[in-house]
Amino acid sequence: MTTTTAPLIEVTGLRKTYAGRAVVDGVSFTVGEGEIFGILGPNGAGKTTTVECVEGLRAADEGRIRVAGLDPVRDHAQVTGILGAQLQESEIQPKLTVKEALELYSAFYPAPLDWRPLADRLRLTDKLGTRFAKLSGGQKQRLFIALALVGNPRVVVLDELTTGLDPRSRRDTWELIEEVRDTGVTVLLVTHFMEEAQRLCDRIAVIDQGRVAALDTPAGLISRAAGSTVISFTPSAPLDERALAGLPAVTSVDHKDGRTTLTGTDDTVTALLTLLARQHVTAHQLRVSDATLDDAFLDLTGAGQS
Ligand SMILES: Nc1ncnc2c1ncn2[C@@H]1O[C@H](COP(=O)(O)OP(=O)(O)OP(=O)(O)O)[C@@H](O)[C@H]1O
């Protein structure tokens, strides 16, 4: 779902410097109300610094940030009322029970949600009496989502929410995030996981070395990958190498173990089929697949993922 409503978050020319080094260097993006907006990038790219500036936890050196028209540093108290941030594990008392944590955090907000249905939706009801320290990783993450939502925010910031979860819990968490969005909450999501970004995000800013390397829908980013379509086959007879390299939009031609692999676009596939017919060559085990967000990410960040 891509929204066209007025932006709820506006970041323009954000710059943050530590010891003379710009770790965020001119980042700009807007997030529409109701959107799930992803921030994706290699380690140390400046993702957390960026979202912490949006939350008003760090002050920008340069640039302008607005959340629902408010300045997160100057208008911090008001922004806290409309922006729910995911807590870090260290911020919760280990002896606090789930119920106590939900009651305590709802007391911080002027118009909190009723935490009981929220706990129910996050499958925490049978854990209400359990101390934080005794929860599993997935249960803790669900509690973090509940605590980020209990203030009834318009926007929720989730930073590496599913890191450390097993695949099942990660998928459950994705469903929860989609449910949260379906209730009208805007989600700003920092993630390392391509599958997560591809599944959840309406749009993604790929941040590399403190700059926005690309900003697009997941499909838009994939179509920017150098070869967005991968074609492989075993030819029944050798093909003319120059004819292959000259196919429209082809970006690479490789031969290995009798198989030929081309990267290109849909146009390359169509032209290849014509070439094969003209040369009376049969393509055995022909496979055509789309590039993934992984391919796009590696292209956009110069394989900088660590
Ligand atoms: N308070 C600070 N003082 C000095 N340097 C900092 C500080 N906070 C962050 N940095 C540096 O800024 C850079 C960006 O950090 P940031 O945490 O924003 O990156 P990130 O993209 O979120 O990385 P990761 O995916 O590893 O969490 C890193 O090189 C980090 O070491």
UniProtKB/TrEMBL annotation:
Topology within the bilayer: Peripheral membrane protein
Record domain ABC transporter: where: 9-234
UniProt KW keywords: Antibiotic resistance, ATP-binding, Nucleotide-binding, Transport
An annotated Gene Ontology molecular function: ATP binding
Predominant location category: membrane
Subcellular location: Cell membrane
SMART domains, sorted: AAA (SM00382)
PANTHER family on file: ABC TRANSPORTER ATP-BINDING PROTEIN
Name of the featured protein: ABC transporter ATP-binding protein
UniProt source species: Streptomyces endophyticus
